Structure prediction request, 379 residues.
Amino acid sequence: MVSEAVAGSRLWSQRSVLCAGLALMVWSMTARPGGAGLHGRGLQISLALTAASVGWLAWLLVGPQGDASLFRVLSAVTAFSGSALLLLHPALAVFWFTFWPCVSAGAHLPERAGAAVTGGSVVILAAGYLDHRGTVLAGFAAVTLIGYVLGRNRKLHIDAARGATLAADERERAAMLAERARIARELHDVLAHSLTGVSLQIESAAAALEAGEDTGRALEHLSRAGQLVRTGRQEAVAAVRTLREGEVALHTMIEELIDTHRGRAYAARFSVAGTPGPLDGAAALALYRVVQEALTNAARHAPGKDVRVDLAYAEGEIAVRVGNATSPAASGAAGGGHGLLGMGERMAAVGGTLTAGRIDGRWRVEARVPVRATVRAGA
Prediction:
């Protein structure tokens, strides 16, 4: 609303200036001493001046925001009438009738229509020069052509700027949609996992009580539900932190995650190499989810085995490795399935890589992500 009001005010200011210019041209032609006058040959001048003046008024009132066809006609009428007037009275004051419509034709009309208006004016002026009606007409013809080129260049620059603005808006919209998708994915990961687990544990506890079993089994299910609530809260806090802060300290997030997982049938150790630094929120959350999924898989597939988490800040990248001992009975798909696929998709979305497999009797998951800023490596 404000921009429209400013544009409207600017348009009427331009119209006022052009109206003042018209009054000055008419005065120079008629009332100023030495003017063309409106008698004798001046009768022809007065007719051409009237046509040019009417065309000028209608042209500036319609403006480029008006009817396109009418604007083209008025531009041609004003420019051609001004050119004809120059043949009768080749003066600078008269030249503006031709010059400004041709500049406007280059700035506002399609290329073919603008070239037609300008070309017609140039032909009229050139014909007058060849007919020996004044050498100045050749200069007027050249300046008219230059004015059209300047107007055309202005149109091209405006169109390029408008295209760049539209492209920027489209990129911003795409980024917004991508961010919405990321938020939706994080909410799904947190809520679907935590709430589904809590619901199942509570239902199991209720079923145990209804069956008349001892309360120990029901309390065990409720304890697991409480653990899921705490884990879900931790995940939600991590997701909100990355969305709010943009850049986060990854080592702090992983340390808090490991503290939450400690005591879940395994002992977890955590080490940090290099100089910790902030990381983009999307990349940090992807690495965080890798560690989270790996710890969950370790508790499921290798209960009672030790788990080690190593985080390394290196030059140009950050790497995290989660390794755990595996029991002989553990399947080769430990840590695999949809969880591993999801981890790989997360890393690919932030330009990172993921590798997983059994090495020397231990299951190892390693994720690497490049960083924009160089992080100083420590000893």
User: Anything to note?
Assistant: The chain has two domains: 2-171, 247-379. The beta strands are 247-249, 268-273, 278-280, 307-314, 317-325, 353-359, 362-370. Confidence is low (pLDDT under 50) at residues 331-337, 373-379.
